[in-house]
What we know:
The protein is mostly helical. It has a domain of 50 residues. Strands 1-2 form a two-stranded parallel ribbon.
Amino acid sequence: xxxxxxxxxxxxxxxxxxxxxxxxxxxxxxxxxxxxxxxxxxxxxxxxxxxxxxxxxxxxxxxxxxxxxxxxxx
Length: 74
């Protein structure tokens, strides 16, 4: 692996996807500059009646970074 490869490792490609398309759409719609706030994640979880952990895992899979997290919930 070259130095350039290491710099690109883990960056979002825009091709990431998850099985729950409704959740994916909600996360992508609220994410700005590939970042989403903790409060917005709580709102998505409540609206879609999903566990917060599932929403957090989905954001991680989509390589959306979580900002302003409340006590490390995600």
